[in-house]
Amino acid sequence: MLIEILSYFCILFTFTLLIYWPFINHFKQTPFINRSLPYMIGVKFGITGLILSFSAVHLTNNFMMNIQYIPVLYSGLLGGPFAILISGLIIGTGLFFLPYLALLPMILNINFLVLVVTLFFVTRKYKMTTKNIFIFFWVCFIETFIALFLGLCFNSKSFEYLLIYGIFTIFSFYFIYIVIRQIKLANDTVKQTTHLKKIDFLTQLPNNKENEKHIKYLIKKKSPFNLLLVDIRDFKMLNLQYGFSTGDLVIKQLAQHLMEYASKNGAYVSRLGGEEFLLVLKDVPPAVAIVEANNLINMISQQPFKVSSDLSLHISVSVGISSYPDNGQTSLELLENLVIAKQQAKIKLSSYFHINNLK
User: Fold this and answer.
1) CA distance 215 to 222
2) Cα distances (angstroms) measured from residue 201 to each of 58, 153, 280, 314
3) Beta carbons within 8 Å of 309's beta carbon, 6+ residues apart
4) How far is CA 334 from CA 236, 344, 358, in A?
5) DSSP-based three-state secondary structure for 172
6) What does the alpha-carbon distance between residue 7 and residue 288 come to, in Å, rounded to a whole number?
7) Which of 90, 150, 163, 312 is the most buried (most CB within 10 A)?
8) Which H or E run contains 255?
């Protein structure tokens, strides 16, 4: 019997992880995936529950050690109420087709279906999470345990069977939960590390590596776009006069203003380094980019940058502009021309300069 119980646990553990792992790691979130996710999860866990039911350990002729509600609970954790309903109905309906289903297992299966429907309605109001799944488990466990006790109360070995069932069920649920929890924590750590590699720490904007990827992607699409290099004027003097911590505050606040601008105008914004930021305007001609650069310069000049409780600063910026495909066919050419345009804006003491104006 011990070998059979261990085999049963291995099936439960393996199938749960095989379903859970891809959904937390590899599925790209799209509208279609988000809509169909509960149904896919419900079907997968339902099939898992059916396999478990056909592999269940028979402690007596009337009692199979079946813990169908564990895959149902994990389907609810991953896919919500409809995943619970779908997986539960698949398992419960499939059990009626077992050729050796006696009276007690049939009654317990009806009890299981009632439990599934109840879980469906309860989880629609109270979402199942990693914190409250224990409450759902213990409610299901106690309710099923009572039903089993009433069904086995006339069996001389009922206490022994119930003890085996209880220990196995509690161990299986918590062991799988701990493993899944560790997998999720490790996955979150990997995602966070990957995210940190893509952003600038001070401003939380994309960094140079992401900038190059974004520009190459736009070039590959062959769609016109404009690059704007926003540079804070006299930033070194600001650092010398007020300190580097003040300079960092100015950079962070400017990043916020640029993000707000980018959000309103459908632009891409990132930090190049130091006091320089990159804006990408898509699907507009160079003339519009020049107008937007001027608007941006005026907007920034009017913003107070609060660096302490009693001090606010005003800054000005220079903007260099280069356009694809006129000013380069590669990201390197576009960025080189962008730097030249920014330098010309500073030399000529003008607010902005498009590389097209260089003679």
Assistant:
1) 11
2) 58, 65, 20, 24
3) none
4) 26, 15, 14
5) helix
6) 68
7) 90
8) helix 244-265
Q: Calculate what percentage of the chain has a pLDDT beyond 90.
A: 28
**Chain centroid to CA 106: how far?**
41
Joined tokens for residue 113: 């279906």
Q: Which residues contact 315 (CB under 8 A, 6 or more apart)?
A: 232, 233, 238, 250, 254, 300, 301, 305
Neighbours of 159 (CB within 10 A): 12
**Tens digit of each residue's pLDDT (9 = 90 or more) over 56-75:** 655 555 556 667 888 899 88
- State how far the Cα of 227 lies from the Cα of 47, in Å rounded to an integer: 53
- Is residue 128 within 8 Å of residue 139, measured between CB atoms? no
Q: Cis before residue 325, ω within 30 degrees of 0?
A: yes
The total number of residues shown for the chain amounts to 359
Instruction: List the CATH code of the domain at 208-357.
Output: 3.30.70.270
Topology of the domain covering 2-198: Arp2/3 complex 21 kDa subunit ARPC3 (1.10.1760)
Check pLDDT > 70 for residue 28: no
Strand, coil or helix: 240: helix
- One-letter-per-residue 3-state SS of 26-61: CCCCCHHHHHHHHHHHHHHHHHHHHHHHHCCEECCC
pTM of the model: 0.60
Give the Cα separation of 168 and 330 in Å (integer).
62
Q: Domain ranges for the chain, please list them.
A: 2-198, 208-357
Which DSSP state fits 267? -
Look up residue 206 and give its two tokens.
Answer: 């994309």
Please, is 222 exposed, middle or buried when counting C-beta atoms within 10 Å of its C-beta (0-12, 13-18, 19+)?
Answer: exposed
Chain Cα centroid distance, residue 34? 12
